[in-house]
């Protein structure tokens, strides 16, 4: 049966990839844009920095739980309306963040914002699997990651420079306005890629379907190592503002300069991955990325333990760790989704559940250090997750016959 993508003109194909990429940026924008404001919010609320860092863990948890719901709903009813409703909830959550009066209300609003925002990320992946041949999925995910990679280039700069001008609350008004505009665009331009099915939505049946996907070796052998490696990134996102602004005394408006290389690295490695996957298998590339991050984690631990190299050395380590995610994330997703065309929405959702569930745990682990006096807790956790990712990849790799 021919793939729907065969009828696309090159312009239509590019337009859809851009639209799917746009749907994936709301989560990183919601994270990266307010990172420079974390110390400011803590001071305004009279709370330790760890209490405000919990809003990151709340966001990651909301994404994990939201994806558990949106995956089955999209396989049952289609992709388009869950995306539109999710963006609407994202707008309401961003409004709640802008009006928050304390850490708990901020956490609750961030949770709602995440539940809505995850729909775009999950269903963009599912739409790719619906519309394009499985062999193209990894390459298209890498092309979408090019758009996603722009977020670390501009979001922290926007947050850092808007913060002293109009305050931290305006950052959430900006996020809500962007989601509202995208919701209108999706309503007008996004075709329905999945007609729905008779899949049952009883919680026990949904859990059974998730269990069948999760226990498949084609799922966990690629996803668990990528999740553990990726958890180091969430430790970095949670701990980096305190390290840069409070420990190294960089002004919030210059925080983006310590972040910008990460976006460049994601762009370079994601596009190199797209070219690699066009003609070569993804397995060797996934192993190389996971092994590289384990090595970078060890170097970061040395820098955090000894103070060697100061902030520039840490920036270099964070750049390399983030850049590798431009290779491991699309490759692991493509290798996994190749086997689950019959339940692309649920498989995509389960990837996100594990990914952001791990991120929530990693963020909470970093937030357990109330006011770290050195970068060591952050670098030690990154090293732990990097080594764990490599260990599980080697553990789950099929043994050669004979």
Defining traits:
402 residues, 15 helices, mainly alpha, Growth Hormone, Chain: A
Short description:
This protein is an all-alpha fold and 402 residues long. It contains 15 helices and no strands.
Structural write-up:
This protein is mostly helical. It has one domain (15-396): Up-down Bundle (Growth Hormone, Chain: A), CATH 1.20.1250. It is built from 15 helices and no strands. It has helices spanning 10-23, 26-32, 38-45, 49-77, 80-98, 103-131, 134-166, 169-189, 203-214, 217-247, 260-279, 283-306, 310-337, 344-367, 376-396. The chain is globular and about 50 Å long.
Q: How do the helices and strands follow one another from N- to C-terminus?
A: HHHHHHHHHHHHHHH
Quaternary form: single chain
CATH architecture: Up-down Bundle
User: Considering the protein shown, what is the CATH homologous superfamily?
Assistant: MFS general substrate transporter like domains
Our estimate of the beta-strand percent is: under 5%
Distance between the termini: 38 Å
CATH topology: Growth Hormone, Chain: A
CATH class membership: Mainly Alpha
Whole-angstrom Rg: 20 Å
- Total beta-strand segments: 0
Q: What's the tally of helices?
A: 15
- Class from secondary-structure proportions: mainly alpha
Label the overall shape: globular
Number of domains: 1
Uncertain residue segments: none
- Mean pLDDT across the residues is 84
Q: What is the helix content?
A: over 70%
